């Protein structure tokens, strides 16, 4: 390695190759974009349009397929259990919206609150599974260090702090969903709204904390899009955390946050993955 690829501290600053396949990156980007566009359509067109539900059902399934295609590499690096938990979480995320895809009118029934609680509970369960996945990666990293594992293919580059921020952030995000089940609206109390602010904020901090390595692997524009997406989720709910009455069911700000800004955050995630795909193509073209 030449001096040109190191900073003054001797840390490797050279770009890293992207090992994810085009298929995985493409499906991941399409999955995030579909989920985000579906939620934006809820905001703009209401909840009885089958196309919107089709997109929010399809999106997580595409992401699950993307991870499945990359399972061998991921399993070797972070362990198969965290990968499986992530896939199961995505499937649950998709299935929670399936009843509304089959019959969009369920949303307008007088007792629709029960259907929405089932939907939100599945949403929450998915995020808790994502959190458990990160906690398992954290435990694996500790185990590898204790055993002096030196295999570069199994090295987990994310720091303990980064993994902890991500795991706790997703856990709080999931707990917010479960907390909302006892409320009268789609969210609930100020405590619930607070979790919906803190959870995504910690996810954004996790990305920022790992920004140097991520920038070398996927590029800084992709990282910035990821941070902005998570930050958008957190900031959008902040007014409701300050004044919970803004979040009453069917309130304008409730729809803006849960569907507008949340959809925008997912779309930014999709753009981030698409940028990674373009970076990989550029790397492959340069190596040819």
Automatic annotation (TrEMBL):
Keywords: Membrane, Transmembrane, Transmembrane helix
TM helices/strands, residue ranges: 20-41, 53-71, 83-102, 118-139, 160-179, 191-211, 223-242, 258-278
Protein name (record): Unannotated protein
Organism, as annotated: freshwater metagenome
């Amino acid at each position: 390695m030449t001096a040109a690829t190191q900073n003054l501290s001797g840390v490797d600053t050279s770009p890293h190759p992207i090992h994810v396949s085009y298929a995985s990156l493409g499906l991941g980007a399409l999955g995030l974009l579909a989920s985000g566009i579906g939620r934006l359509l809820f905001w703009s067109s209401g909840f009885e349009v089958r196309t919107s539900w089709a997109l929010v059902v399809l999106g997580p399934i595409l992401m699950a397929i993307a991870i499945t295609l990359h399972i061998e590499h991921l399993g070797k690096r972070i362990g198969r259990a965290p990968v499986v938990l992530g896939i199961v979480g995505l499937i649950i995320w998709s299935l929670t919206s399936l009843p509304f895809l089959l019959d969009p009118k369920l949303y307008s029934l007088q007792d629709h609150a029960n259907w929405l609680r089932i939907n939100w509970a599945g949403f929450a369960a998915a995020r808790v599974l994502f959190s458990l996945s990160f906690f398992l990666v954290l435990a694996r990293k500790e185990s590898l260090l204790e055993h002096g594992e030196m295999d570069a293919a199994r090295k987990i580059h994310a720091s303990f702090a980064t993994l902890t921020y991500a795991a706790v952030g997703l856990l709080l995000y999931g707990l917010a969903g479960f907390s909302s089940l006892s409320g009268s609206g789609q969210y609930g109390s100020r405590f619930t709204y607070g979790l919906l602010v803190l959870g995504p904020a910690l996810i954004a901090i996790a990305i920022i904390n790992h920004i140097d390595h991520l920038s070398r692997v996927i590029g800084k524009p992709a990282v910035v899009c990821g941070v902005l997406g998570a930050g958008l989720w957190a900031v959008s709910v902040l007014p409701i955390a300050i004044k919970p009455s803004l979040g009453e069911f069917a309130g304008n700000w409730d729809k803006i946050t849960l569907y507008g800004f949340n959809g925008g955050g997912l779309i930014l995630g999709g753009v981030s993955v698409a940028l990674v795909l373009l970076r990989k193509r550029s790397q492959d073209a340069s190596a040819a």
